């Protein structure tokens, strides 16, 4: 539930949007670990190596990071989107159907506040319906009308080149593993 962008499923029942209906990452990894034996790649809210260590300890084979790489110079995200990640104006994220009809997590802005409460569960029709509005907002330089996809850890974003980011995460992961006496981590960072 912490992850930025669209969720993997196509949940069509708005009752499934209730805060208590979606599992947090550590609970989810532990539950899946006890159910199936295939390798688990954990994603959602991971911004630091210490968090990757936590999901590896919980039984994941790897951690996957999205929002952490969004602000890298190599990322093709819109500059307004990148700047919004650590802008105090956008204090928190929300799961919303406002932009596409499918639940997706983004920084709370005017578009989400105005249209989230009544957005219907109709994907991809709503995506196509709002596409022009989102493009116009980007053209006007108005982040309040754009889809600012972001995970819950967005405030921890670091503007580092991607290779440096991977190195930094690896050092943090290793340090966290040593601190807690974990075995050498097998984590892959993508
Ligand atoms: C800007 C952005 C765009 C994304 N686009 C997609 C996408 O097109 N398809 C998809 O399956 N996941 C997409 N995701 C979700 C990521 O694959 C990943 O699950 C997520 O970023 C992990 O959570 P984190 O952002 O908190 O690290 C996107 C995430 C972000 C932040």
TrEMBL record:
Keyword Oxidoreductase: yes
Organism of origin: Streptomyces himastatinicus ATCC 53653
The keyword rRNA-binding is assigned to this record: no
InterPro entries to which the protein is assigned, alphabetical: Aldolase_TIM
Name recorded for this polypeptide: 2-nitropropane dioxygenase family oxidoreductase
A Pfam family assignment: NMO
Lineage: Bacteria, Bacillati, Actinomycetota, Actinomycetes, Kitasatosporales
Any one GO molecular-function label of the UniProt entry: nitronate monooxygenase activity
Keywords: Dioxygenase, Oxidoreductase
Superkingdom assignment: Bacteria
């Amino acid at each position: 539930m912490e992850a930025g962008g669209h969720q993997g499923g196509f949940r069509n029942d708005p009752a499934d949007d209730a805060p208590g209906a979606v599992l947090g990452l550590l609970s989810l990894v532990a539950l899946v670990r006890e159910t199936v034996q295939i390798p688990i790649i954990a994603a959602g809210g991971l911004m630091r190596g210490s968090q990757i260590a936590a999901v590896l300890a919980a039984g994941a084979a790897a951690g996957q990071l999205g929002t952490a790489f969004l602000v890298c110079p190599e990322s093709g995200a819109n500059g307004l989107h990148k700047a919004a990640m650590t802008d105090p104006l956008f204090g928190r994220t929300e799961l919303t159907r406002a932009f596409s009809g499918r639940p997706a997590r983004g920084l709370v802005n005017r578009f989400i506040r105005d249209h989230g409460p009544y957005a219907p569960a109709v994907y991809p029709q709503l995506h196509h319906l709002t596409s022009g509005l989102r493009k116009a907002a980007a053209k006007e330089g108005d982040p309040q009308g754009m889809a600012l996809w972001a995970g819950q850890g967005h405030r921890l974003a670091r503007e580092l080149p991607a290779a440096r980011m991977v190195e930094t995460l690896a050092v943090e992961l290793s340090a966290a593993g040593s601190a807690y006496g974990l075995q050498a981590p097998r984590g892959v960072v993508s």
